[in-house]
Structures are given as structure tokens and as C-alpha cells.
Amino acid sequence: MDLTVMTLLPVLFSGVISGMILFHAGIIAPTLFKTVSSKEAGPFLRLVFPKLFLFVLILGIFSLLVLFLGNGVGVAKISSTITVVSMIVCYSIIPTTNSARDLGEENTFKRLHRLSVVLTMVVLLANLFWIFLL
Questions:
Q1: 15 Cβ partners below 8 Å, 6+ apart?
Q2: Average pLDDT over residues 2-23
Q3: DSSP assignment of 69-103, as one string?
């Protein structure tokens, strides 16, 4: 594979990851909550969030593989590692988060939801800014 492609693929993956997170957090979720009640939005979000986390995780894994195969820069490897680890955590806490919501355990739900939001924002920032650190 061409070295240029190996260099540009992680940039492309980071752009797609950033775009997905921004689109979901900035357009999908706010529009959904403005259009339907939170009770109606819940089932939709329970379908979308796992797919978002899983797809970002897959892109992070591909990016990491390309970076290691193509001898990529350290900061890009760190960003991709942050992406992979964070999305594994976000994806794995979904059942507990949903269960806490269903059982009315608001403190547990808020804590887990906050964790997933913070990790997703860390992933967004890592993927937006690593390119400027080259």
C-alpha cells in the first residue's frame, strides 16, 4: 500500500469519528428531544448509542492497525488507543446504564451517563486535535 494512503487513513478515520460524534450530539439527540418526549426518545437512543459506540470502536481499531502497520506517529497512536479503550468502556456500560434507568436508580444512571458523555467528548477532542500536534 502507498505510504501516502497509510499516512492519510488515520486522518480520515479521525475525521469520520469526529463527524459522527458531532452529528449525533449536536443534531440527532437535541432534535429528538425537541420533537418527542424523553419517554419516546429513550427506545430510539437505546438503539442508536450502541451502534455509534461500536462503529467508532471499529474505526479506532482500523486506525490503530494502520498506524502500527505504517509506523505512524506516536500522538496518532495515543489518540486511536484512547478511542478504542473509551468506546469499549462506553459500549460495555450500556446494559448497566439502561438497567439503572429502568429501575429508577437515578444516581447510578446519571453517573454512568456522565461517564459515557465524558469519554465520548475525550474521544472527540483526541480525534479533532491530534493532527495539529504533528
A1: 127
A2: 88
A3: HTT--HHHHHHHHHHHHHHHHHHHTHHHHHHHHHT
For residue 80, which of 100, 58, 96 has the smallest C-alpha distance?
A: 58
Burial class (CB in 10 A: 0-12, 13-18, 19+), 126: buried
Domain boundaries, the chain: 3-133
Question: pTM of the prediction?
Answer: 0.91
The Cα–Cα gap between 80 and 76 comes to 6
Question: If you average pLDDT over residues 52-71, what whole number do you get?
Answer: 95
Tell me if 130 sits within 8 A of 28, measured CB to CB.
no
